[in-house]
TrEMBL record:
This is Carbamoyl phosphate synthase small chain. Pathway: Pyrimidine metabolism; UMP biosynthesis via de novo pathway; (S)-dihydroorotate from bicarbonate: step 1/3; Amino-acid biosynthesis; L-arginine biosynthesis; carbamoyl phosphate from bicarbonate: step 1/1. GO terms for biological process: 'de novo' pyrimidine nucleobase biosynthetic process; 'de novo' UMP biosynthetic process; glutamine metabolic process; L-arginine biosynthetic process. SUPFAM superfamilies: Carbamoyl phosphate synthetase, small subunit N-terminal domain (SSF52021), Class I glutamine amidotransferase-like (SSF52317). Gene3D superfamilies: 3.40.50.880, Carbamoyl-phosphate synthase small subunit, N-terminal domain. Residues 17-146 form the Carbamoyl-phosphate synthase small subunit N-terminal domain. Composed of two chains; the small (or glutamine) chain promotes the hydrolysis of glutamine to ammonia, which is used by the large (or ammonia) chain to synthesize carbamoyl phosphate. Tetramer of heterodimers (alpha,beta)4. L-glutamine binds at S61, G239, L268, Q271, N309, Y312. PANTHER family: CARBAMOYL-PHOSPHATE SYNTHASE SMALL CHAIN (PTHR43418:SF7), MULTIFUNCTIONAL TRYPTOPHAN BIOSYNTHESIS PROTEIN-RELATED (PTHR43418). It holds the Pfam family GATase.
Length: 374
């Protein structure tokens, strides 16, 4: 306890509250800079998970966003290479209430050192409860994070946030996707080609655990090239930003559907499947971000608490798609299945990184589709 008090006192003595997050609606939240000292633009969203901050930081789906953590204490168990979900950090920055020194045998570095090493800015000392309520009531906001220490008027920061292009209409999947194909593992009963729109490593682990040999391909890989690998199934991964800005991916999904290859999508992959079939995909007021979202499975009546990270949702489903899952908080679409073709998808993250794990069984229907095809 004394070490924690001294740690916070040291930070308070060394750093003034000259950093802030300026929202496009003119609201400003002041705090203390930590991590990389470089200003950034992004979209402010809140995550309601109580743990799993390293998995959140390394989720490529947060590209272009400032993540506001509602958990009041962050950093307690530090960071380590084993909990990384991708090859880097793609988010714009992190906003928290308190940052603590690590006290865990698995930690190899502190949260601040981790952010600094990856060149990502952070802001602590913020009333994140008030900020979260503001985003919930007024919607997701474009924002400017000022942590550089250089003089900057709040009004100028607000103006920069308003002038930013935002995420709508932007293809961030191509920015975070792997540049080249690669093999994740070398053995399995089924060969699955995974489209990397921002894939998380635990998706690949779950597929491998389900008996799949996994080959990962970049987001812009044509369907013909994927099918030339002779897969038993194709998987459409999660990813960031606006699915409407990926017409090439929608065309790829349509070609894969025409080939009648077993197909499964998660998150962005779910949205792309819906768009390829004729559904509409629109922006949610403040998105779903966290690991405590209840989802009902309409096929068996079960309810699972799920991990989610998305700003858009499918609506106006065409007749060829059957609704299989709904969000019990707002009734939005959380899963579909094609009525005639071997294709299914879910909006949430059954791979559970961070948890919970109760939806991981949803990889089984995809394996069943491949078994039926064989």
């Amino acid at each position: 306890m004394n070490a924690l008090i001294e740690y916070r006192a040291k930070w308070a003595a060394e750093r003034a509250r000259d950093a802030f997050l300026a929202l496009a609606d003119g609201t400003v939240f002041r705090g203390v800079a930590f991590g990389a000292r470089q200003d950034a633009l992004g979209e402010a969203v809140f995550n309601t998970g109580m743990s799993g901050y390293q998995e959140i930081l390394t989720d490529p789906s947060y590209a272009g966003q400032f993540v506001v953590l509602t958990a009041p204490e962050v950093g307690n168990y530090g960071c380590n290479p084993e909990d990384e979900e991708s090859r880097g950090l793609f988010l714009s920055g992190l906003v928290v209430r308190r940052v603590n020194p690590p006290s865990n045998f698995r930690a190899t570095e502190s949260l601040e050192a981790y952010l600094t090493r990856h060149g990502k800015p952070g802001l602590y000392g913020v009333d994140t409860r008030t900020l979260t309520l503001h985003l919930r009531d007024h919607g997701t906001q474009r924002a400017y994070l000022h942590v550089s220490g250089e003089p900057l008027a709040e009004a100028e920061a607000v103006a920069r946030a308003r002038a930013w292009e935002g995420l709508d209409g932007q293809d961030y999947a191509a920015r975070v996707s792997a540049p080249e194909p690669y093999a994740w593992n070398d053995a399995g009963r089924f060969h699955v080609v995974v489209y990397d729109f921002g894939v998380k490593r635990n998706i690949l682990r779950c597929l491998a655990a389900a008996g799949c040999r996994v080959t990962v391909v970049p987001a812009r890989t044509p369907a013909e090239a994927a099918l030339a690998l002779r897969p038993d199934g194709v998987f459409l991964s999660n990813g960031p930003a606006d699915p409407n800005a990926l017409p090439y991916a929608q065309a790829t999904v349509r070609a894969l559907l025409d080939a009648r290859i077993p197909l499964m999508g998660i998150c962005l992959g779910h949205q792309l499947l819906g768009l390829a079939c004729g559904a509409r995909c629109g922006r949610l007021p403040f998105g779903h971000h966290g690991c405590n979202h209840p989802v009902k499975n309409l096929l068996d009546g079960s309810v699972a608490i799920t991990s989610q990270n998305h700003n858009y949702a499918l609506a106006d489903l065409p007749d060829c798609l059957a609704l299989t899952h709904v969000n019990l908080n707002d009734g939005t679409c959380e899963g579909v299945r094609h009525r005639a073709l071997p294709a299914l998808s879910v909006q949430f993250h059954p791979e559970a990184a961070p948890g919970p794990r109760e939806a991981q069984a949803l990889f089984r229907p995809f394996v069943a589709l491949m078994e039926s095809a064989k």
